[in-house]
Structure formats: C-alpha cells, structure tokens
C-alpha cells in the first residue's frame, strides 16, 4: 500500500512477490529498496519489457510469427525456481533473445529498443512508464500503417 500524500509505503517484509519468471534482477538478488515506492515502479518496467517481448513474438511480420513461449523459455524449466531465475538474470545477465525479423519492421525495431531499455540491470537506468508511453504514442503517430501490415496473432 502506498499513499502519495504522505509517501507512506507498506509492503510487508517479503520482497519475493510476483511471478518468478517476471522478477527484476533487484527482486531476484534481494537488493530492492523496499522502503522506496519508485523501486516497485522500476520492477514493473522490467516486467513490461517482458510482456512487450511476448507480444512481439506473436506479431506477424512478412508472414512469419513465432509460437507462444514465456520469457526465458529456452534458459529455465517451465516452472523455474527463484534460484534458477536468479542465476539466469543476475549472475549470467541473460535477456530474452530477439528474432531477426523484429529488426526488419520499423515499429517492431523501435519496440525492440524499448524492451532492451526496460531490461537494464540497474533499475534507475530503465525507462520510466511515462517515457514508454510517449515513445509508443509517437510510434503510433509517425507510422500510419494499414492494419493488415502489422497484425497480432493472439
């Protein structure tokens, strides 16, 4: 619970909250500043990057679409442990791989850049939600593509 007026923050005493596969490095290595609300927003940006990655895999470009896979599907088991995710994300500093086709489409290429900026190891270096929103809005304005050019296969 967070109160904007008093900046009061009550999150309990367990930093290991959420789906392990989507946990940011600072949650996995337990270095998250639990007393600062901004820390939680930064972990959400990490997870947003993973959701954008999932969406981009299911986007048809030049007739190609990838089957659904969760983030880090090729690096951890289907139900990874906290320790397995910590090794992949914090120790090995792995990130989901990007298919080459994403770079061949101007919008997806820009979204790929956003994803990578959501996955910086250092939380303050990650994009803010406002910056993500503004960048996506600008992409929408700059590219007036017919809907059949970029389709989602959900």
From TrEMBL:
Top-level taxonomic group: Eukaryota
Annotated EC: 2.7.11.30
A GO term, aspect molecular function: ATP binding
One Pfam assignment: Pkinase
Main location: membrane
Protein kinase domain segment(s): 1-146
Signal peptide range: none
Bilayer disposition of the protein: Single-pass type I membrane protein
A GO CC term attached to the entry: BMP receptor complex
Sorted UniProt keywords: ATP-binding, Kinase, Membrane, Nucleotide-binding, Receptor, Serine/threonine-protein kinase, Signal, Transferase, Transmembrane, Transmembrane helix
Location(s) in or outside the cell: Membrane
PANTHER family listed in its UniProt record: SERINE_THREONINE-PROTEIN KINASE RECEPTOR R3, TRANSFORMING GROWTH FACTOR-BETA RECEPTOR TYPE I AND II
Protein name per UniProt: receptor protein serine/threonine kinase
Origin species: Hucho hucho
Taxonomic placement: Eukaryota, Metazoa, Chordata, Craniata, Vertebrata
